[in-house]
């Protein structure tokens, strides 16, 4: 699991979680996007990036500390190459221990365990091939830059607005 954080345990910024099976072709597109976004936001302490094989219950604490979470995943429900954005709301969390968490159940766990849940969006890229293999299909590779661009656009849209004074201070 790749993880980059500012080291501050009270982060209130953005958490990006890209996930998917690295050995199932296009299922890994969320992880590939997370790696690219980690490079883009490497000097930004308000953005934490996680690339992982699956969502886990332990992530509920990370989720509860953020103002916004962006989930990145592959899908196989529509035409290959389609990119979809959807709002994520807390949903029914499965009872007991499970390896089948969804973004909704992870938000629900954060709410139940820590009393808070951030705003969240999930962006999916419809994959072309989910066969055993550690490479993205040609179609997924072609759409990955747009997938990453949309992720950056969403992250920027959820940033707190800076005052003019903040901008002047940063430029000095």
Overview of this protein structure:
- With about 170 residues, this protein is α/β, with parallel strands linked by helices.
- It has a single domain (about 1-170), classed as HybD-like (Rossmann fold), CATH 3.40.50.
- Helix content is about 35%, strand content about 20%.
- It has helices spanning about 30-40, 60-65, 105-115, 140-155, 165-170; strands at about 1-5, 15-20, 45-50, 70-75, 85, 120-125.
- Strands 1-3-2-4-6-5 form a 6-stranded mixed β-sheet, covered by helices on one side.
- Strand 2 (about 15-20), helix 1 and strand 3 (about 45-50) form a beta-alpha-beta unit.
- Helix 1 crosses helix 4 (about 140-155).
- The longest helix is centred in the last third of the chain and has 20 residues, at about 140-155.
- The chain is globular, with a radius of gyration of 16 Å.
- The N and C termini lie far apart (about 35 Å).
- Mean pLDDT is about 85; it is low at about 1-10.
- Count the E strands: 6
Rounded Rg: 16 Å
Q: Which parts are unreliable, with pLDDT below 50 for 5 consecutive residues or more?
A: 1-9
Helical amount among residues, as a percent range? 25-40%
Helix count, per DSSP? 5
Would you tell me the structural class of the helices and strands?
Answer: alpha/beta
Proportion of residues in β-strands: 15-25%
The CATH architecture category equals 3-Layer(aba) Sandwich
Measured distance between first and last alpha carbons: 37 Å
Q: How many domains would you count in the coordinates?
A: 1
CATH topology: Rossmann fold
Order of secondary-structure elements: EEHEHEEHEHH
Q: Output the strand order for the largest sheet.
A: 1-3-2-4-6-5
How confident overall, as mean pLDDT?
85
- Overall morphology: globular
Which CATH top level class fits?
Alpha Beta
Give the biggest sheet: 6 strands, mixed
CATH superfamily: HybD-like
């Amino acid at each position: 699991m790749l993880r980059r954080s500012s080291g501050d345990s009270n982060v209130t910024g953005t958490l990006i979680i890209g996930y998917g099976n690295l050995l199932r072709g296009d299922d890994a597109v969320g992880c590939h996007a997370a790696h690219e976004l980690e490079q883009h936001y490497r000097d930004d302490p308000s953005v934490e990036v996680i690339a992982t094989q699956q969502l886990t219950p332990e992530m509920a604490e990370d989720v509860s500390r953020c103002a916004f979470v962006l989930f990145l995943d592959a899908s196989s429900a529509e035409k290959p190459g389609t990119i979809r954005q959807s709002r994520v709301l807390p949903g029914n969390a499965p009872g007991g221990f499970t390896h089948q968490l969804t973004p909704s159940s992870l938000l629900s766990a954060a709410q139940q365990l820590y009393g808070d849940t951030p705003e969240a969006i999930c962006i999916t890229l419809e994959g072309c091939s989910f066969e055993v293999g550690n490479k993205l299909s040609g179609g997924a590779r072609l759409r990955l830059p747009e997938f990453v661009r949309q992720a950056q656009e969403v992250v920027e849209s959820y940033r707190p607005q800076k005052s003019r004074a903040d901008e002047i201070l940063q430029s000095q």
